[in-house]
Amino acid sequence: MTAFTIQEVSRRSGLSEPTLRYYEEAGLVGPIGRDQRSGHRRYRTEDLDVLEALACLRAAGVGIEDMRTYLANRARGREAAAEQRDLLLRHAERIEAEIVAQQVRLEYLREKAALWDARDRADSTAEAHAIGRVMDVVGDLAALR
Questions:
Q1: pLDDT tens-digit readout, 2-22
Q2: Total domain count for the chain?
Q3: Contact at 8 Å (CB) between 58 and 16?
Q4: Taking the alpha carbons of 33, 36, 41, 44 in that order, is the dihedral positive or negative?
Q5: Interval 43-92: pLDDT, tens
Q6: Domain that holds residue 23
């Protein structure tokens, strides 16, 4: 049996040591075995596999309760496939909405930069057009709230 230290698991998963301890405490992984002499955690390959999946979910902004549901569905296998799909698609839709919002914010910044570029060049025609475009984006930003 391969046993990994908490430092090794942290490095491999990208999760901090406090997060690893928290995930064990929250019941997302484990219980984690302990070294008989030192009492330090010793993770199995299976624990590392679960933690790598959790690290990906966390990076996607998935919360603890949905992680718990994901793991339960994973253990149930095919019978939970529809529920698993729906959980993942719900988060995909959330991320898509965040991307749209970020694109609007990016457009605002670019249009404001174009406005200031026109002012820097003393181009009143370009400035007037830029003001109109900025106002359009401001409306889009207001709709995000």
A1: 789 999 999 999 999 999 999
A2: 2
A3: no
A4: negative
A5: 999 999 999 999 999 999 999 999 999 999 999 999 999 999 999 999 99
A6: 6-82
